[in-house]
Amino acid sequence: MFTTVGNRGTMHLGLCLRVLILAALTVPIRAAQPAQETFTLTVPDGPTSTLSGSSVSLLCQVSPLFNVEPLEVRWYRSSNFHSLALLYKYHKIQEAPVDPQYSGRVSLTGGMERGNVSLTLERVTLEDKGEYVCQVTSKQWYEKASVFLTVNVTGSEPVLSVAEARGGGGQVNVTCSSAGWSPQPKLIWTNKEGTEIRNGQEVLNTSDPQGLVSVSSWLLYAPSYSDWLACTVSLSEEVKRESRILPLIYTAPTAVPGVYKEAYILILVLLVLSPVIICALCSVILWKRRGSMWSSSRKSRNSSDQTELGQRPTETKNLIEGAENTVKTLTRQRAAGKGGNLKAETNNSIEGAETTVKTPTEYIAFDWHQVKGFKG
């Protein structure tokens, strides 16, 4: 009897233990199962903006939070499901079939164990702008959401120019132009007080094949003596370019009142006459230089003549002494009976002397009668 009762108690106790073990194993699984079966994705409401050449994160978060490492994550352009920017599968990022445009530039850096599947894109270019789709897939469920990326490109410095307006009336036509912007920028005119000018302006935007925008604007303006204008082209308060101009500097004489008109005419006259003045100065300088050279040459010639004239008396004296010696020799020969024409030979010697001592301007007077011992 006791044996029967003991067996029944043992059976009831074993059954209770089995129920408790099953309950303990079943409750945690049922609590965790809904997070893996269904989920949603959280993305930014508006577009994500970045500058060309920088890095950007396209945010995408799984809700409720759980570890998504065992799941599949796809990032792709909305226009083409098969053109993948990134594919995460089998616990790693796949090399193919990713678009080569994104090779080496994308990663998942949010922390997948916390349910963050945000895409980080480096070295952003203008071609990267557009809509991206974040898709997370499990064995039972998948969800996707879109993130729009805008790439800001800062354009060139605005170029300003001024021309007289048609019909005159003291107004000028001020032009502002800038190119190479993305997306379409905002252009405003302001005066020196910083007040925006809205009247009398027109704005034109054009795009090139690369999607970059050029902006131009024209403004009719009546300048005063000290007013300047500013043209500002901007994408935001942080991304903008500005140029300024003083219209009075560039306007025609008819559009400039008072002293500015007279100053403009004076400058114009000086510009016209400056070539004539320069030519006259060059002529004076050349004339003075030539006169100086001629004077130096004349002094050199006079010095040479004076030197030569200083040497002539010595030469003449030597010739006279030679002639005297010749006369003495001829006289002795005559006395010895070797006759000869003493006067003729002496004349020949003197003519040679006269030829030798000839100066550049005249012949030195030479009297052969001064030769000692000569008798005609």
UniProtKB/TrEMBL annotation:
Keywords: Disulfide bond, Glycoprotein, Immunoglobulin domain, Membrane, Signal, Transmembrane, Transmembrane helix
Compartments in which it is found: Membrane
Organism superkingdom: Eukaryota
Domain Ig-like intervals: 34-154, 158-247
Keyword field contains Disulfide bond: yes
Signal peptide: 1-31
Keyword Disulfide bond among UniProt keywords: yes
Transmembrane segment boundaries: 263-287
Biological processes per GO annotation: regulation of cytokine production; regulation of leukocyte cell-cell adhesion; regulation of T cell activation; T cell receptor signaling pathway
A molecular function GO annotation: signaling receptor binding
GO cellular component: external side of plasma membrane
Pfam families: C2-set_3, V-set
PROSITE patterns per record: IG_LIKE
Main location: membrane
Region of interest (Disordered), ranges: 295-353
Xref: PANTHER family: BG-LIKE ANTIGEN 1-RELATED, BUTYROPHILIN
Protein name: Butyrophilin subfamily 3 member A2-like isoform X5
Organism: Salvelinus namaycush (Lake trout)
Lineage: Eukaryota, Metazoa, Chordata, Craniata, Vertebrata
